[in-house]
Design a protein that fits this description.
Helix content: 10-25%
Strand content: 25-35%
Strand order of the largest sheet: 1-2-5
Number of helices: 2
Distance between the termini: 85 Å
Order of helices and strands: HEEEEEH
Largest sheet: 3 strands, antiparallel
Amino acid sequence: MKKDRSFDSPPYTALYVSVLLVVTLTLFFSTVSAHQPSNMELSYDPIAGKLQVNIGHRVGNISSHYIERVTIRRNGDIVHEENYQVQQKRSGGTFQYDLSASNLG
């Protein structure tokens, strides 16, 4: 009697399922490995009404892992929010926002 060596046999099915599970979990955890910025420095010029934000966020790939959103609040209210899809540098980025009195409402 000849042994069944097809991929439908139990040992191969278990191996296939195990490999598929490892690949799936690896892909899942690589996409959810977000981390907070390491530091943030704020500088405000009241005459020009400009806020400069330097954010330290070291990453390996600036297009797949990046600073996604910057939210600026005053007294708990959101005065500006901006979304990003790429980071300026591997070490983070510098952002400038117009927060003059006319833009704050």
